[in-house]
Amino acid sequence: MSDKLKTKFLGKTIKSPLVLPAGIMDMSFSGLNYAVQNGAGIVTSKSLTLEPRMGHKGPVVAEFEGGLLNCMGLCNPGIEDGLAEINQFKKHSDIPVIVSVFATNILDFLKLTKYVNKSKADFLELNLSCPNVFDEFGIPLSASKEKVGEIISAVKKISKLPIIAKLSPNVYDISEIALSAESAGADALCLINTVGPGMLIDTKMVKPVLFNKFGGLSGPCIKPIALKLIYQTYSAVNIPIIGMGGVKSGEDAVEMLMAGATVIGVGTAVYCRGIEVFNKINDEITKFMKEENYKKLSEIPKLKKL
Ligand SMILES: Cc1cc2nc3c(=O)[nH]c(=O)nc-3n(C[C@H](O)[C@H](O)[C@H](O)COP(=O)(O)O)c2cc1C
User: Fold this and answer.
1) Count of CA atoms in the C-beta half-sphere (13 A) of 19
2) How far apart are CA 10 and CA 108, in angstroms?
3) Is 223 near ligand 1, meaning CB less than 6 Å away?
4) DSSP-derived 3-state class of residue 265
């Protein structure tokens, strides 16, 4: 991997700006390691809850020409088992790990933070994109700037790790949510989570493709939405952004950087181009830099703020 890709995120030096986002690989330490072996610079766990969750009945993922529709239902092994996998991973690797956690109320976010404080993880990501487990596609927590502020301030008081707030695209004004997260103490933002929900229909069976009927959209079809929201957020705040949503090539990754991202998530593309996609995108970014004569990542220009 080219040295030109080396960069810094929240004080850590990383060998590639590419991030494995939450929920893309399984929760095992070998799953995380697989992404690192293939060129990811930072890895994120599935969103972990206090108790293990089974998730929805299948099919939970459907592919279509624009990307994926998923309704995983936040299945995960629970915080204790999830952190055990991360601690195992950190025994063998110094690659930064983001632990993603999800709760429906402040008290549970605080309980999760106490577990994470005792782990070897590097960053704590608060998944503020889902409303509650029973109504996955209701109004997301991060649709309310007040809720976002309350959760982040409470967690900030006790967290030993830098906090990343993961935001939903399904909001009216992303900049006011981002500003609220920043002033409550978020160290970085991560956006976007899945868009929608949407639905696909099996015309032979005359029924929705997903058992749960509705699912969140990811992949190439959401990239223009992601770029716009990242750009608006970058224009509003001064903290770093993990930009994601539909990145499948070096060109897409460069667009994310120009929109204001510091590092770039590659999720759905892992399903479409295989796990090697990280190395492929690293090579494509390096090629772009060579063609445009950029010596380091930070030389790739950002758009002028709004
Ligand atoms: C199958 C699947 C599972 C996901 N699980 C989570 C999750 O547990 N927590 C979370 O914050 N985001 C989750 N996401 C959202 C991704 O982390 C990412 O924000 C989104 O897919 C957009 O990026 P992409 O287009 O590169 O996939 C999931 C996405 C997919 C496709």
Assistant:
1) 28
2) 25
3) no
4) strand
pLDDT for residue 183 is more than 80: yes
- Residue 132 — pLDDT band, cuts 50, 70, 90? very low
Show the beta-strand stretches assigned E in 170-291.
Answer: 188-191, 195-198, 201-202, 207-208, 215-218, 241-243, 263-265
The H-assigned helical ranges of 59-144 are: 79-92, 106-117
Cα 222 to Cα 53: distance, rounded to the nearest angstrom: 27
Q: For residue 124, give the amino acid letter.
A: L
pLDDT the model gives residue 175: 97
7 Cβ inside 6 Å of ligand 1: no
CATH class of residue range 3-55+74-200+218-299? alpha beta
The helix (run of H) or strand (run of E) holding residue 185 is: none
Annotated catalytic residue 221: no
The answer, yes or no, to whether the previous bond of 192 is cis (omega within 30 of 0) is yes
Atom 5 of ligand 1: nearest residue by CA position: 23
Contacts of 107 (CB under 8 A, 6+ apart): none
Tell me the per-residue pLDDT of 206-237, one tens digit each, with 9 for 90 and over: 999 999 999 999 999 999 999 999 999 999 99
H/E stretch holding 203: none
pLDDT attached to residue 28: 84
Kindly state if the Cβ of 168 falls inside 6 Å of ligand 1. no
Helices 145-158 and 106-117 meet at what angle, rounded to 10? 30
- Residue pointed to by tokens 């494509």: 284
- What is the predicted pLDDT for the residue at 138? 63
Cα distance between residue 191 and residue 199, in whole Å: 22
Q: Mean pLDDT of all residues in the chain? A: 94
Query: Quick check: 189 pLDDT over 50?
Result: yes
